[in-house]
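Write out the 3D structure for:
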Amino acid sequence: MGKIILTGDRPTGKLHLGHYVGSLRRRVELQNAGKFDKMFVFMADVQALTDNAENPEKIRQNIIEVALDYLSAGLDPTKCTLFIQSQIPEISELTTFFMNLISVSRVQRNPTVKTEIQMRNFESNIPMGFFSYPVSQAADIATFKATTVPAGEDQEPMLEVAREIVRRFNQVYAPVLVEPTIMLPKKRMARRLPGTDGKEKMSKSLGNCIYLSDDADTVWKKVKGMYTDPKHLNVSDPGCVKGNAVFTYLDAFSTDDDFADFWPEFKTLNELKTAYRRGGIGDMKCKKLLNDVLNKMLDPIRKRRQEFEQDIPEIYNILKKGSEAARETAAQTLSEVKTAMQINYFDDFKYICNQAERFKQKAEK
């Protein structure tokens, strides 16, 4: 069995730094490392429609935005397969089969589902498609027999559901599917990047994001307004690093080289933290450092995006080819699944012959 990566995003808007630090940056590293046999990266438009069913144009428009973000961040279609979820009907078919292997109460206990329902104010009026998207996500993974899923720690409960369903399928039918493992970001502080407002999670719906495609002026405007330490009123006051979004972002993105370039008074982030806690360091200076760090990282991404934007038809061609390749893999998995479930009626010639013989013997009696 080969080592296979599967990962993706809901195309509900442009990708932001939370996506980048949570999985996108790692995807590019893994793609270039060559340690995996296959890598699938997809746009989960079917899942995006579970809470955007009345606004399909939003999803349609953002397919190209996410594709541009993927390519500009460094994903290479010659090294990984980029595809669109809705173009692989086998995923939906496997989702249907998986729904028989998990209970409603188990899905309800999923903390990620609970959080997402609360964020969207669904309360008791939850769309069935949205409620069951952990099952759909399990099908995404199992369809491509992914061994590894790079994701933020908020997705760990979803991966556990996927493992349970795959394990159940293999026990009931036959061991044809693979239990996936999660690959968390290397930096613990980057596993759940907060929003610029200091809230627990960066989210498009909360409007607290810095996007990969934001220009330098927009990044600075957002960084200037970031949440820091509300008790740090004067420069001379001791500051608190914990819960301070600026320092969380510096933990996620800064390097020692950045300090040499932008604030040589300090050699490392730990030195800056110590000085900030002691007092005498203003929040604005820290924000200027973060702004420099972020724009240094984003500049090459923005430049590549501008280049890709010059040939949009080719981007769609890349996605079409990737979807065709992904569907070949999906079809093979579904063939194995149906064989295991004994619903491959027209492919099992031996069974057809046995049935014919049975009815022939019956007629002779």
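The chain is about 55% helix and 5% strand.
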